Amino acid sequence: ASVAETSISTALVTETSRASVAETSISTALVTETSRASVAETSISGALQTESSKARASEGSLAASLGGLSGSVTASNSQLNRSEISIATSLTEELSRAVLS
How many angstroms separate the Cα of 100 from the Cα of each of 88, 96, 97? Predict the structure, then answer.
């Protein structure tokens, strides 16, 4: 019985030691994976911020282009209005001359 008890005791110590090593290994793996996940999360966050900044810059550029285009359209519209007035004036003068002739 004493030999069996010693053998069981030795086996328990061995298994406890193995379990402790396995627990340490699992704990280390979890810390490593948590660290990797944190790095990946930081990288994704940085990429999202970069893309967001690019989108805002593009939006600003597009707004400026549209503003410039709007100004050009307004200027062209004013020029057309002046041309219409000039044509209307010329036609009125021609009609007046025709009536007076």
Answer: 18, 6, 5
